[in-house]
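re: ur question from the group chat, yeah i did fold both. here u go
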Amino acid sequence: MDVFTTKSGRVRGRRAARDRGIVAVRGVPYAAPPFGARRFREPQPAEPWDGVRDCTAFGPVSPQSAELPGAPSWSPGDEDILTVNVWTPADGPGDLPVLVWIHGGAYVFGSSAQPDFDGTALAGRGLVVVTLNSRLGFEGFGHVPEPLDADNGMHVPGDGMDGTGKGMPLPGRTIRVPGADAGAAAFPDNRGLLDQIAALEWVRDNISAFGGSPDRVTLAGQSSGATSVACLTVADRARGLFRRAVLHSAVNAFATMEQAARTTAEVAEAAGVPATRAGLLAAPPELLVAAADRVCERYAQDPGSGQRHYDPAIYGPVADGALLTADPLEALAAGAGGAVELLVCHTTEEQWLLDAVGSSAKITSEEQLDFFAADFGLPASLVEGHRERLPDAPLLDVYLSVYSGLLFAEYSTRLAEAHALAGGRAFLARFDRRRDPAGQRVRAWHCADIPFAFGNLHEESVHFLLGGPPGAADEELSRRMTRAWADFAAHGDPGWAALDGPAESGATVQIWRTAAEEDGAEHGFRDLWRAAGLPLLAP
């Protein structure tokens, strides 16, 4: 019987169907349900239990409207959402390296139960794999205002913006909070990040029972999960909870308190509740989820609404002056990453997935492209440079290429560079697999790299990401990528040289392709971005 003893009680897992040598333990509470009196507050310890808790099924997901293939959806009343899942070798030697995974989903959707994130293959590489659920949407990242005039109103400071996000981005990248010493708030910002810290603390206190070493933890994530990892890498409160970090497709998005307060006002208005602490606490989670969806839809339908029109994501990490005081890129450049070792990757065609699923605005005219550049404060030379290097591409592809760099590729690359230049150890990779087993063209788009790194290519739900079922060359690429993750988690060496300065294609940048693909397939845009600069975006 596969029973493990945690500090809260005993749990029973089940042998993985794909590999009977791996035990999967699912839905283990790492904190109490964050609702009722605990809603919008810091995560609280899980209640202990007697006997053996059956942990053979995933726990409920965070409140959201998304319904993802192969994964559970959320229903009102699902509250025990702060859980972890563990995959561990049944007869492991103990003291194994640990990989903790934070899923993506624009901070509003997704869960650890997605088939992409099954930890069986990585556990077969000698890791203990942990995946987690944390609060999303308003529950995890909405700003809850301080009471004002007996909770009758909310003060929304001005920052020179018009509340729509339209106009130039904040100058430079500095969003440091003056006198950033806010202390512990009763209803803190960044609750989703605080949940992730609580999960890491659970790992520290319990993972030895599953054969893992609390001193050999690697924190990994993709998209918003990768940006969460970056935030925790520079947060003092998470220091010492992990020694290495894997970031795939980190998102260039970080909000000031003023921007977060405006988002709260918009969501409250859409929900028909007062934008006050009392009003928000009285609104059930499903009402705030639906209200946020309406806010996003309004941005998507309004070409004049500025930056949020192109990819209307409204939640994300906030410079609250307590957990976070600066954008992770600025903080890493200042040395805040300390001794944490980084492995950073992005795909070469990130934004094409967002276009394919309809969450990115269509740009089909020169006038629209000019508006896009103006809304983000991008120089004409940057757009023209992309056009010149994509001479036969349609206008939509030029836009998607620029937006890929703006949101994901350039930001991810600069995170690795900043850490290396500040004296840290950082490795950089790019995912550029563009051929299916029949040799047909597929996109190296957002999320396509994750099934390869997890070794989950045969899950039917991921075939859309891959362009169809995998072939032998894909299997070989996946073996190389899972080995790189496992070796990095175990030894800090993914198999290529660490950066020692600015990242250029060559020996210090690993390009993930199948063996049958031609070299030099990717287009280079780094010199264009270095000349143009990278504006900081707000969710």
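okk and heres the other one u asked abt
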Amino acid sequence: MAAELVRGQNHPLPQARLEIRISAGSPVLAGATLGDERGTVRGAEWVAHPGAPTLPGIEVSPQAAAEHRLAVDLAALPEAVHRVTVLLALPERPGGPLRFGSLAAPRAAVTAPGGTEIARFVLTGLDAESAVVALELYRRQGAWKVRAVGQGYAGGLAALLADQGLASAAELASDVREAVARSLARAVPAPRPPDPSPASGSAQTGPAAAPREADPAGRRAADGPIDYTHPGRRSGTCPSPAQPPAAPPAAPGGHPPRPVAGDAVGWSMDERLYNQVWGMFEDLARTTAAYRSAVDFAGSRLEKETDQALADPRVRLGAAGDAAREAARARHARLIEQARAALDRDVAQLTAESEVVEPALPAACARWDNPVWHGYRVPAEPPMALRLGDLHLPESAPLRIPLLARLPLERGLWIDSGSAPGPDDASPDSADTRRLAMDVAVALAVRLLAVHPVGEFDVQVLDPAGTGAQALLPLTRTGAVTEPPAAGAAGVAAVLGRLTRRVDLVRMALRGGATDSLPPGFDAAQQLLLVNDFPHGFDDRAVNQLRYLVDEGPAVGVHLLMVADRADAAAYGPLLDPLWRSLMRLTPVPGDHLADPWVGHAWTFEPALVPPGSGILQQVLTEVTAARIKHR
């Protein structure tokens, strides 16, 4: 049975040779783009369109039509291709529609070459768009999946191609329009409305609905032969530089292949693991969005069918009305069950992947209870990313996705010490939140110190009122900070003045191309400024210096980690708004939420705290201090 996809939902593809069948209410052009591991289209030669309908592994229609069949052979795609994006666009012709909103919703289906449907998707909700991404075939863990996208572009084909990173988007869109104009005389007219057939249970009958047969060699009865041969692949079983090894086959029984740590693109293991974690985050976000969309659709459909049953006075009461309402509830339950089954399938696969990825993460990205920390030694190379905490969603609560930040930090971090409702809607005590915020900040500072080579990272602390002394003990007791925390307004002015001069000096050296002329003995180590209880001890000059460090510091190796309650700085009014917007806000309260503007989820965030009673911070900092003394 074919999967009925909703926007954002994915489905595994059981075979390499496929057809993408498009049905629209008016002639449209169909095309496809090939994307690399980041989804970027590297050039016009990676776009199949009516002017260039054939690429290795894919063939599209050479004209505008109301029905299309795109042939795809995933095994014949170039090795660098990780995504195939199927797109539709309205051709420019006199009297033709200008937007998809004026047409019946297009339909896209993925089928086997013989016509057996694997998945289908109805592109609803389109309005002013004249181009739309219908489907996306993408490679994940050595297996291919299809995702329903349905993203429209009011700017047309040029905007769609530009969004995929194609530099010559406008020129290629113009070439496509010319190719379509030459073929419009051969455009296939729109099909007649389907005639329901109760006997067959199908919504479409007659010749338009009958799938054309395809022979094993890939020759379609009406469209001629398709060459599925990869131009760089030679016959035989031994891979060569021109013949990359084939993707690993699915496990017996049609199950997805067993996950492998580092099964993503990248030049190093750390980069592959980082990209794999990001892929897991993306998959969980999309599959959850698809589930929520399906639940919303099922609820609106139930409400509509119930209203229809109640609107007819002849069936409102009695057995007929009860039967109609019961049938609506059964359909609703069936839709919810199907959506939940798809979500559970995806979450189970991601959970299995997490179980092999988590133990393989390097120290910078590992939890504090990971055994990698117990055998800690100061590294010789700087890390690629840093773990800030864990993210999860209520529909898949046991599954945790690491929240990783690339290094060096492009944005400062703000640990919010203001009161916020916990997971049970109870606001923690203000003093407890402030203490917890400092614990999170110190754990992050220790992690940054520990994962950098000796002498390449340093931490400076501003604690004007001395309220963070207890939380700072791991840093001060081991001598991991080269200077004691600065106190009072004088300490704030001294530290900010020193770092501001440093930023000015390095920026001037970089602009002048004279980095080798920095003063003798200049400490080139990156600096992390940990600020507690902002704005206590800050005057207007100090605030302006802090804003300067936030804006200009990351580019020259000066980073900010601030523990503050925005309400404490209310006296400054909107003056500090740019400061808050430039920082990445983290909550120290386990079970609190972080907003995700990408898909609109409110992710539950768990900060990267040390397990209670653990002495791992002391152990790690002792090793860091010993290495620093030896290095001198």
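fwiw on the second one: The first strand starts at residue 3 and ends at 5. The chain has ten helices and 21 strands. idk if thats what u expected
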